[in-house]
Write a structure and sequence with these properties.
Blueprint lengths: L9 H10 L3 H8 L5 H8 L3 H10 L2 E4 L7 H7 L5 E5 L19 H10 L5 E5 L5 H10 L5 E5 L2 E4 H10 L5 E5 L2 E3 L18 E3 L9 H10 L5 E3 L6 H10 L5 E3 L9 H12 L6 E3 L21 E3 L7 H8 L7 E5 L3 H11 L5 E5 L14 H10 L5 E6 L4 H10 L5 E6 L14 H10 L5 E4 L5 H10 L5 E5 L5 H10 L5 E5 L5 H5 L10 E5 L5 H10 L3 E6 L11 E6 L12 E3 L1
Helix pairs in contact: 2-4, 3-4, 6-7, 7-8, 9-10, 10-11, 12-13, 13-14, 14-15, 15-16, 16-17, 17-18
């Protein structure tokens, strides 16, 4: 709607006066909006506000790299400085998306080099990034400052060396959980001797020994370094030397924590940690041993985030450490802490808001350790601010989940994974329907839900009826019929991502979302009962959707084993490999 004067109500007069600001003033005001949703809403007010938002936008988030083309993006927003881009579907984390599926960043970089020469930040997740692309990036953007690669693949430490050599203004290099070819640790030596701008350095998931001399010099030069996460090749003695040179650190990812220290070395490490007055986040601690953990105690008082996802602590070790962390807000642990360790969390961490418990070995059914319903109930009783949980467990009951959400009704993210698919309430042998019914009835702010256990269509009826703010739903080995999926699609107005695997949903369920899919980001269905004819009908009825079927060798020609549906303003993608059929 253009802002032109007609026979106007008082409300429209106010709108016209608002849009009469000079462009420079309006762009300055809109530049203060940080929320992507707020900026998108503002752009819909009138043509003047649309243009002002277009020219003032500096950051853009794209949740699916195939939902738009780089050419369309650069026409829409000419002055972008920071791009966040996601590629493969999330189920690629579980090896459900074949290699060479796509999501290559290079075509984007070629367009950005022409249209966004002042690009400063690039944050990628589940994208394919080659050394060629990293070299091109390093040479094409003279003001480039921040590179974050999360769950990406295709590159090696040679590409990191190109970034280190050529990005003179780099402030952030964050490499997390990537499929990287770690050739050697010499890439750190490629930072020039004059380089001093680094604020974030994370190479925790690399495997080879690093050039410690180069790392130590780099840390010494970068006086603004706030985040340092090293890999497990860095022992405690070297960690102490780094801390002495960077007492300003706020986030620390340690290396191996198993080195035997002399009394003097222990004292020096404890002193260095204590001297890091701004330290609020700690991770790493590979191979942590009981005798080394007390060195952390003096530094724990101000910690708000502890990530022990790489440290298989037992319950006693966690309990002894957690008592020193009264300000903890976020905690990630492995299930080796058992219920006893989580009981300590409930006793000593009243401010906790986020808990993630990962399995030490999700595929070994003979493991006797792990967590149960008792652990999460204990946390919920002592941590009433809890609003985010990811919980891998061996058993669960309906009553326990109901107790958890009664204690903590403000959950926005509730992700429960019972390790054995289709497992019922182990005490009553009933389905887990009432557990997730309690979640969606009680937690009115719920945005993300991941479900497991024996679930019938009743669970999905509950979701459709009560989960009015739900945006992402992940389901596996659940449901009774098409009716379950239909309830979700018809009842959840804010649903944006639906991820389904190994469920009995077929064509009727798929086609029940015809009016819903264009308002969603994506739908993933794998190993369900969907056929190729059902997918073709969906594509015919909804031509603005991309309907893709992954057909692997030996698959049934009539069945659609893996279906990926997403909205796109760019049309069918041009780089689909032969095993991806676009209907």
């Amino acid at each position: 709607m253009e802002c032109k004067r007609k026979k106007e109500s008082p409300e429209s007069n106010n709108l016209n006066r608002a849009s009469a600001f000079p462009d420079e003033v309006l762009e300055r005001v809109l530049g203060m909006l940080k929320s992507r949703k707020d900026r998108s809403s503002v752009s819909l007010v009138c043509k003047e506000w649309y243009n002002a938002e277009r020219w003032s936008r500096r950051n853009v988030f794209i949740g699916n790299c195939y939902s738009v083309s780089p050419e369309i993006l650069t026409r829409r927003f000419p002055n972008i400085r920071s791009v966040t881009l996601k590629g493969k579907p999330r189920f690629s984390d579980f090896n459900l998306v074949p290699a060479n599926w796509g999501a290559d960043i290079h075509s984007w970089l070629v367009v950005f080099a022409e249209k966004y020469p002042l690009l400063e930040e690039l944050r990628l997740k589940r994208m394919t990034v080659t050394d060629e692309s990293l070299d091109f990036l390093a040479l094409s953007f003279p003001n480039f400052k921040a590179l974050s690669l999360l769950s990406c693949d295709g590159f090696s430490t040679d590409g990191l060396a190109a970034i280190a050599t050529n990005c003179k203004n780099l402030t952030e290099l964050d490499i997390q959980e990537n499929g990287i070819d770690d050739k050697n640790g010499n890439w750190l030596s490629y930072f020039p001797e004059s380089f001093t701008s680094l604020e974030v350095l994370n190479f925790a998931n690399l495997h080879n020994d690093v050039n410690f001399e180069a790392l130590e010099k780099l840390v010494s030069r970068c006086k603004s370094l706030k985040t340092l996460k090293v890999n497990k090749s860095v022992p405690l003695e070297q960690l102490q030397r780094l801390l002495v040179r960077a007492p300003q650190l706020g986030e620390l990812g340690s290396g191996s924590f198993s080195q035997e220290l002399t009394t003097q070395q222990y004292s020096e490490l404890e002193s260095a940690l204590t001297n890091c007055k701004n330290l609020h986040a700690l991770s790493g601690l590979w191979e942590a041993e009981e005798q080394s953990l007390p060195v952390l105690y003096p530094a724990c008082t101000n910690l708000t985030f502890l990530n022990f996802g790489d440290a298989s602590l037992n319950s006693d070790d966690l309990a002894k450490l957690i008592v020193h962390c009264p300000n903890l807000r976020r905690l990630w642990v492995v299930d080796t802490v058992e219920d006893k360790g989580l009981e300590a969390v409930g006793s000593y961490c009243p401010l906790l808001e986020e808990l993630r418990v990962f399995p030490a070995d999700p595929f070994d059914e003979g493991i006797v350790h792990g967590v149960t319903e008792s652990g999460i109930v204990a946390v919920s009783q002592g941590c009433r601010r809890l609003h985010y949980v990811l919980y891998f467990c061996r058993q669960m009951t309906n009553a326990a989940v109901a107790t958890v959400v009664q204690n903590c009704p403000d959950f926005t993210h509730f992700r429960l994974c019972i390790m054995s698919p289709g497992q019922p309430d182990y005490l009553t042998h009933e389905p887990m329907d009432e557990a997730f019914g309690a979640v969606v009835k009680t937690c009115t702010k719920l945005q993300r839900l991941a479900m497991s256990g024996l679930l019938t269509d009743l669970t999905f009826e509950y979701i459709g009826k009560y989960a009015k703010n739900l945006e992402t739903l992940s389901v596996a080995f659940a449901g009774s019929s098409d009716w379950g999926m239909q309830c979700v699609l018809e009842g959840c107005p804010k649903l944006r991502k639906l991820e389904i695997r190994d469920c009995p949903f077929g064509n009727a369920a798929l086609l029940s979302g015809l009016e819903k899919y264009e308002s969603m980001r994506s739908l993933w269905m794998s190993d369900c009962n969907v056929t190729m004819n059902g997918c073709r009908l969906l594509a015919k009825e909804m031509p603005r959707l991309n309907v893709e079927v992954i057909k692997e060798e030996g698959s049934d020609d009539s069945q659609a084993e893996k279906v990926y549906v997403y909205r796109s303003v760019a049309g069918p993608r041009r780089d689909a490999p032969p095993f991806v059929l676009t209907l």
